[in-house]
Specification:
CATH topology of the largest domain: TIM Barrel
Bound molecules: zinc ion
Helix content: 10-25%
CATH class of the largest domain: Alpha Beta
Number of strands: 30
Strand content: 25-35%
Shape: elongated
Length: 491
């Protein structure tokens, strides 16, 4: 057998192996050194944009910077970061925070945006009185509201309200554009009854034979004019004297009712004053002093209605009404002298002064009526004592002179009290009525003193005449020969 010759392998020496490894390491190191790049890296911690609600806190998370190798990242080094900029948490807005890092001539800068914002809407609070309501068909009357916002504070005067379809819609926005809307439901109701108005008043008088006429109006706060729907119950019979009641009722559409009543008196037509035929204790002479004035024309109309003639003792206190003297004379009334000035101190200073004033007024009468008067009444009456302080004994001398001149003076025996005692029409009426009764009981005609410059006195005349006619009296105007009551002279 042939022996196989063993071929022994040749081993590399240890030094060779080391050399190879070294060479390889050197190549790798060179590659690393060649490829590796150093850089400054700056990174935010947290989000790039941060939203902060107004009122919340904010803590900046900062940023990290390091000097790092791209191939051998474990070879890094922390670098200090500086922060600039700040966030005002009390003011909404967009804030920028800048982070900066510097190392070995490298500079890095990054920013973060912090938005401080208000996303909470304002709040509206409505005031409401549980007792209050809005009548149907009426606009809502605001009971009040307020609005406040966490950021803007009080926004009450920025609230816009609008009424529509039974609701009031309130809206308001804050300065960040957050808005809120609140709805109030209007509480409609009708608690007021209609109001009935009776034209002519609740008491009216008709004379027998006249046509009964009446008019009324009804209005309701919700339904408006209801006049046409008023139910009227009446049984007025103007052919029969008596007192009748007319009832007016109305209900509104929500069941509130109203009633009004009117008393209708039907009475016999007042008699016309009969033509005077001689004077008696049933004669009434109505006399009016100190005018003509603002109510004289009206008085002439009232007298005319009853065919009553009266007597006017005139002054020139109200020249604008002087025409009433002519009107009165033309209607058959007697127009006499009272005084032009009615100034006691002047007219009772001397006889000359008295007659000068008398003649001046008589000239006015003549100008208005066409003739002078021989009839007069002393201011204050013949019994006045005021004249004592101006001239002792003058009333006695004037009364005597009047007789010599052919003048007749008239005092009165019925005082109405309208010159100071009262301003009440019914008191004037009562005073006159009881005075007239006293006169007829004592067998003398009544010479009644009233003042046609007092409206409340003129207002009593129609009732005085009606009372007189119903009680059998006759009214007449004074003539120079009429009964002339004279007070006792005191000066
Ligand atoms: Zn007088």
């Amino acid at each position: 057998m042939a022996k196989t010759k063993k071929t022994a392998k040749k081993k590399l020496p240890v030094t060779g192996i080391i050399a190879i490894i070294a060479a390889f390491a050197a190549v790798v190191a060179c590659a690393v050194l060649f490829l590796n790049k150093w850089s400054l890296e700056l990174k935010l911690i947290g989000e790039e944009t941060v939203h902060v609600e107004y009122g919340d806190t904010y803590t900046d998370e900062g940023a990290d910077a390091e000097w790092s190798a791209s191939v051998l990242p474990f070879l890094n080094e922390k670098v200090e970061v500086t922060t600039e900029g700040n966030v005002d948490l009390k003011k909404t807005g967009t804030y920028t925070i800048t982070y900066k890092a510097d190392y070995k001539n490298e500079h890095q800068e990054i920013t973060r945006t912090v938005i401080v914002e208000d996303t909470i809407p304002p709040q509206i609070v409505l005031k409401s009185d549980p007792e209050s309501y809005t009548p149907f068909n009426h606009p809502y009357e605001e009971e009040g509201f307020s609005a406040s916002d966490n950021y803007d504070g009080d926004l009450s005067d920025k609230v816009v309200s609008e009424e529509s379809d039974g609701e009031v819609i309130y809206t308001v926005s804050d300065s960040s554009g957050n808005s809120v809307k609140l709805v109030r439901t209007i509480n409609y109701d009708d608690r007021e009854p209609p109001v009935i108005e009776l034209s002519g008043g609740s008491e009216v008088t008709f004379y027998v034979g006249e046509k009964f006429y009446h008019e009324w109006f009804a209005t309701d706060d919700c339904d408006g004019d209801l006049s046409e729907q008023v139910k009227v119950e009446q049984n007025v019979d103007t052919s029969t004297p008596g007192t009748y009641t007319v009832t007016y009722t109305i209900a509104d559409s929500h069941g509130n009712e109203a009633t009004a009543t009117r008393t209708v008196t039907v009475k016999e037509k007042p008699k016309n004053n009969p033509a005077p035929s001689g004077e008696s204790s049933k004669t009434i002479y109505l006399t009016f002093d100190d005018g003509p004035g603002a109510y004289t024309d009206e008085l002439l109309g009232i007298l005319d209605q009853y065919n009553v003639k009266a007597t006017f003792f005139t002054t020139s206190a109200y020249p604008a009404y002087a025409y009433c003297m002519g009107k009165a004379a033309a209607a058959g009334h007697t127009v006499c002298v009272h005084s032009q000035t009615h100034n006691y101190a002047q007219i009772y200073s001397s006889e000359e002064a008295y007659w000068a004033d008398f003649n001046a007024q008589n000239a006015v009468i003549a100008a208005q009526t066409g003739s002078y008067s021989t009839m007069f009444r002393f201011p204050g009456g013949s019994s006045n004592t005021v004249s004592r302080s101006y001239n002792t004994g003058i009333m006695s001398r004037l009364a005597a002179q009047a007789g010599q001149y052919g003048y007749t003076y008239f005092d009165w025996n019925v005082s109405s009290g309208d010159a100071g005692e009262t301003t009440s029409t019914s008191v004037v009426y009562q005073n006159v009525i009881s005075g007239i009764q006293w006169c007829s009981n004592n067998g003398v005609p009544a010479v009644v003193l009233q003042h046609d410059v007092k409206s409340y006195s003129v207002a009593a005349v129609a009732d005085i005449i009606e009372w007189g006619l119903e009680n059998g009296y006759t009214f007449a105007a004074l003539t120079p020969g009429s009964y002339a009551p004279h007070h006792g002279i005191n000066n």
